[in-house]
């Protein structure tokens, strides 16, 4: 039987090879590889004692904390499927994901219980004992009535459950369902296999030269593919992962952590770098970041001055920029020596990642310098969308996968992203799909039509803005609509501004579809007039 190391196998391996080495930590507690393995093993057994079986989905809702590392390893060991949920989502958005994946258990951090507790009656697939709570408070908060305590589950697992044979987990078995914001108004669950996640970890280590001597700082949300992929990379190597568990970004605290933990690598979005580099010189001088050897910047375009400032401050650091997706994994990489000479591109394909094609609407390869839809063929591509064969079929042309991004390639093979087929907005590193926000705004009784676009923002890269057509005879204010949005969508999705236009001012195709790009260009021209 074929077997490929899962992240649980990797933890177990390093628990044997160097049991007392620091494996993972946050600001509250640390885990050696042996402690990590023992706690993940007990959590895995405890979940099986609750009646969960291989293939069952387990929803996870938490801010960044070291428990994520335990949960990912425990679920992998048991053959359970992790469903990480973005902590920024509202209760209805959380309910949709938990229902859609038919979760059998739900593990929730104490600070987020208020989002989930009102949903308990409607989430029918969760097992009666499948509501699990953990506390990151010091001292830990008491377990609420009707919930299983995470620590109690780990501490009270029976000897029989620990000794029970674990069903073999195969490479092609699902490891995680990563829900991405949907271009049709609903998120889609991208099925990631153990094989895919292990291969992307190995490809990352190979291309970027990581070793077991590295220390990674994970700042991006642990529910995101970025932190999932990088955490698996360092776990497989037996390196150390430090989780930034602050609930809001603190640029000076980040510098202090980089210095104190002697971090050699971190992955950030441009907004993080801009905020950090904007600190006063005397503040930055307090923290020696000389241990940092590699830096990743991703999720949004970075300006030349930003990159130069990064390289100046991190004197020993080499800067990388990547483009990828939850579905395809890493697709392109702009390497350190290319950062300035190839500014504006996202580089060329990763070593070992496969190949890239740019296709027109008929599936024909476009010439260099022409815009086409970007397709990649990677060994770690996702297995399709959960319960959505139609969208899965749309994502593939044979073995080639696309998430709808439009790009062009120059004669040397460097890729420049031109637009997004789905008009996705990236605000502070978070993906926002206009159609999802539009579908919610469209339920407002006064709104007849709406287009959501991204507008340039110095801090967040892009800000979400809604262009609204009201029903005839209706009148409302920007503030009223902004307030109406507060309880209906996550903060990063909510429009920062509302523009009211007449129906005739909304640019459309001959078939009536709104031309988002034309609208963006028009509004940009007006703002500069």
TrEMBL record:
Which InterPro entries does the UniProt record give? AMP-bd_C (IPR025110), AMP-bd_C_sf (IPR045851), AMP-binding_CS (IPR020845), AMP-dep_synth/lig_dom (IPR000873), ANL_N_sf (IPR042099)
Could you tell me which residue ranges the AMP-dependent synthetase/ligase domain spans? 13-386
Alphabetical list of SUPFAM superfamilies matching this protein: Acetyl-CoA synthetase-like
Q: Which Pfam families did the record assign?
A: AMP-binding, AMP-binding_C
Give the domain of life: Bacteria
Question: Any idea which UniProt keywords this protein has?
Answer: Ligase
- Ranges for domain AMP-binding enzyme C-terminal come to 436-513
Ligase recorded as keyword: yes
What's the family?
Answer: Belongs to the ATP-dependent AMP-binding enzyme family.
**Which protein, by its recorded name, is this?**
AMP-binding protein
């Amino acid at each position: 039987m074929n077997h490929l190391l899962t992240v649980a196998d990797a933890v177990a391996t390093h628990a044997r090879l160097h049991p007392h080495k620091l494996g993972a930590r946050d600001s509250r507690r640390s885990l050696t590889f042996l402690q990590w393995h023992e706690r993940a093993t007990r959590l895995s057994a405890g979940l099986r004692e609750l009646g969960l079986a291989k293939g069952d989905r387990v929803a996870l809702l938490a801010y960044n904390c070291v428990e994520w590392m335990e949960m990912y390893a425990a679920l992998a060991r048991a053959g359970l499927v992790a469903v990480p949920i973005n902590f920024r989502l509202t209760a209805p958005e959380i309910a949709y994901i938990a229902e859609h994946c038919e979760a059998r258990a739900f593990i929730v951090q104490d600070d987020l219980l208020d989002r989930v507790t009102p949903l308990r009656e409607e989430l029918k697939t969760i097992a009666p004992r499948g509501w699990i709570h953990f506390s990151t408070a010091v001292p830990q908060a008491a377990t609420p009535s009707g919930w299983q305590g995470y620590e109690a589950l780990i501490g009270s697992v029976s000897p029989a459950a620990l000794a029970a044979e674990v069903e073999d987990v195969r490479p092609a078995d699902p490891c995680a369902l990563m829900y991405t914001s949907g271009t049709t108004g609903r998120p889609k669950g991208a099925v990631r296999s153990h094989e895919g996640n292990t291969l992307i970890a190995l490809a990352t280590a190979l291309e970027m030269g990581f070793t077991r001597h590295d220390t990674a700082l994970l700042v991006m949300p642990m529910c995101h593919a970025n932190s999932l992929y990088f955490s698996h990379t360092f776990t497989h190597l037996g390196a150390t992962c430090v989780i930034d568990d602050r609930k809001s970004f603190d640029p000076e605290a980040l510098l202090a952590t980089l210095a104190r933990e002697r971090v050699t690598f971190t992955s950030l979005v441009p907004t993080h770098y801009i905020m950090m580099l904007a600190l006063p010189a005397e503040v930055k001088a307090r923290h020696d970041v000389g241990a940092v050897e590699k830096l990743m910047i991703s999720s949004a375009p970075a300006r030349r001055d930003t990159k130069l400032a990064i390289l100046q401050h991190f004197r020993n650091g080499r800067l990388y920029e990547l483009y990828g997706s939850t579905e395809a994994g890493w697709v392109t990489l702009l390497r350190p020596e290319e950062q300035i000479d190839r500014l504006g591109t996202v580089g060329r394909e990763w070593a070992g990642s496969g190949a890239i094609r740019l296709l027109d609407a008929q599936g024909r390869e476009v010439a260099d310098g022409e815009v086409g839809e970007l397709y990649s063929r990677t060994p770690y591509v996702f297995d399709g969308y959960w319960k959505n064969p139609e969208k899965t079929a749309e994502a593939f042309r044979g073995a080639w996968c696309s998430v709808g991004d439009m790009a062009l390639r120059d004669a040397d093979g460097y890729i420049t992203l031109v637009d997004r087929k789905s008009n996705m907005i990236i605000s502070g590193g978070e993906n926002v799909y206009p159609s999802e926000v539009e579908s919610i705004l469209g339920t407002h009784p006064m709104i007849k039509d709406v287009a959501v676009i991204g507008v340039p923002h110095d801090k967040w890269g892009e800000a979400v803005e809604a262009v609204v057509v009201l029903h005839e005879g209706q009148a409302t204010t920007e503030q009223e609509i902004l307030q109406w949005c507060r309880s209906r969508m996550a903060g990063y999705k909510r429009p920062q501004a509302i523009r009211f236009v007449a129906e005739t001012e909304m640019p459309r195709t001959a078939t009536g579809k709104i031309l988002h790009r034309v609208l963006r260009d028009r509004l940009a021209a007006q703002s500069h007039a």
